[in-house]
Amino acid sequence: MKKFMRILSPIQLIVVGILDIAVIGYAVFAIKKLIQNQRSTTIFFAACVVAALIVAVLVTKEVVSHGVIFHDDEMEFTGLDTDNIFSYDDIVKVETQKDEKPSFVKNFMDRQSRIILTLKNDKVITIDIGLTTKGTLKNISDEICARTGIPPVEINEISDDSKNETHGTDTEE
């Protein structure tokens, strides 16, 4: 049973949509100018707009095609170039991380969603899926956990006991 779950950031969708609208606007402008005046500069401008249209279509196709393909025995992250296929039998732990706490200190990369897979050979793989919604991250995590039979762990909700330990620095009073 093959299933595809799209990973689409709302911010990325808005930016790509605005850029596509701008390219289409320039194309309309170029066609009007080409009809009015058929000089070499207008033809060159129209050719550049055609190239921009091709790039816009390819970028939009790439953004919309990112996701996870769930096969019967493995899953594939389509947004990754290498090491993007994971067998369900090799996964022993699934964690998710999405920082939504307000802060003026954190940068753009700190806000991205992550899926952290621990494999049988103790290899930990962090997959950064971008600025997705918490619902998208939960749906992907739930699907992975349903196919592996492992309960999901959300890192943001784990209580970190290491902060309470003294690590050998005993203080006497």
Short précis:
With 173 residues, the chain is α+β, with helices and mostly antiparallel strands. The protein has helices at residues 10-36, 40-65, 134-148, and strands at 3-6, 67-70, 74-77, 85-87, 91-97, 113-119, 124-130, 153-154. The strands form two sheets. A four-stranded antiparallel beta sheet has the order 1-2-3-4, with helices on one face. A four-stranded mixed beta sheet has the order 7-6-5-8, covered by helices on one side.
Blueprint (SSEs and pairs):
Layout: E1 3-6, H1 10-36, H2 40-65, E2 67-70, E3 74-77, E4 85-87, E5 91-97, E6 113-119, E7 124-130, H3 134-148, E8 153-154
Parallel strand pairs: 5-8
Antiparallel strand pairs: 1-2, 2-3, 3-4, 5-6, 6-7
Helix pairs in contact: 1-2
Describe this entry's structure for a reader.
The protein is α+β, with helices and mostly antiparallel strands and 173 residues long. Helices cover 39% and strands 22% of the residues. The protein has 3 helices and 8 strands, in the order βααββββββαβ. A 4-stranded antiparallel β-sheet has the order 1-2-3-4, with helices on one face. α1 runs antiparallel to α2 (40-65). The chain starts with a strand and ends in a 19-residue tail after the last strand.
